[in-house]
Amino acid sequence: MITLKSNREIQSMHEAGKLLAACHREVAKLIKPGISTSAIDRFVETYLKKHGAIPEQIGYNGYQYATCASVNDEICHGYPRKEPLANGDIVTIDFVVNLNGSLADSAWTYAVGDISDEAKGLMDVTLECLYKGIEQAQIGNRIGDIGHAVQTYAEARGYGVVREFTGHGIGPRIHEEPQIPHFGSPGKGLRLKEGMVITIEPMINVGVWESKMDANGWTARTADGKLSAQYEHTIAITKDGPLILTMQ
C-alpha cells in the first residue's frame, strides 16, 4: 500500500533529512586513505545518537551496522570493516536516520585520495543520473519516466544501470511501496501523486549491469568486478515540484 504524507509529515522527514545531510558533510571530512569503514560506521552511529536520532538500519532484517559501506566493485549493502581504505578507492556510505519517528535515507559515493579518471567519470555520471531522475519526480509523471531518464543518460555514455536494486517509498518504514527502478519506459508505471515520498538512488556500473551476491547474503557486487557508484536522495512529490529532503 502506498501512503501519502501530510505537509506535517513531510516537514518532519525534512528535519531528519537535514540531520542526515549534516552527518554526510562530516563523513566527507573523514574520507582519506587509511581510515576504515568500521571507523566511519562508528562515527555515524555516535553522531546520530548525539543529535537525538536513531541509526535506523541497525537491526533491520538482522543487519548489524549503522551504515552500508560499499567499496569499489561493491554495488550496495557492503559491510563496514576494519581494513583501511586505500588511495584510489571509491566508497559509498549509505544510511537511514530516524528522528522522532520520521525517516530519511541517502547514499553518497566518495573518492579516497587521488582516484582514476575512470572512477571520477563514473561518479560524475552517477550523480548526474540522480538529478536526471529527480527532474522527473513531478505530479502526474509516472515511475517509468524516472527510470527512463536515468537509464538513457547512463547507457548513452556506456555505463551499466543496476536492475536488481531500486529506489522505494519511505515513511514510517525504511522500505515502502512503490519500487522506483532506475530503468524503464516513459509513460509507464504508477502515476506520481502529491504527498508521495520516495528515494531515487541510481547504482551505475563501469561495466555490465548484472550483480552477484557475497556469501554474507547482503553485499552485492558487480558481476565483472568493475567499479560501481551510487547517489541517493529522499524526495517528496509536491505541487511545487520535487522537494529534496536530504540535500547536502
TrEMBL record:
Domain Peptidase M24 per the UniProt entry, residue ranges: 12-239
Cofactor(s) needed: Co(2+); Zn(2+); Mn(2+); Fe(2+)
Gene Ontology terms, MF aspect: initiator methionyl aminopeptidase activity; metal ion binding; metalloaminopeptidase activity
Chain's gene name: map
Protein name: Methionine aminopeptidase
Entries under SUPFAM superfamilies matching the protein: Creatinase/aminopeptidase (SSF55920)
InterPro entries: Creatinase/aminopeptidase-like (IPR036005), Pept_M24 (IPR000994), Pept_M24_MAP (IPR001714), Pept_M24A_MAP1 (IPR002467)
Cellular component annotations (GO), alphabetically ordered: cytosol
Cofactor note: Binds 2 divalent metal cations per subunit. Has a high-affinity and a low affinity metal-binding site. The true nature of the physiological cofactor is under debate. The enzyme is active with cobalt, zinc, manganese or divalent iron ions. Most likely, methionine aminopeptidases function as mononuclear Fe(2+)-metalloproteases under physiological conditions, and the catalytically relevant metal-binding site has been assigned to the histidine-containing high-affinity site.
Residues the entry annotates as binding a divalent metal cation 1: 94, 105, 232
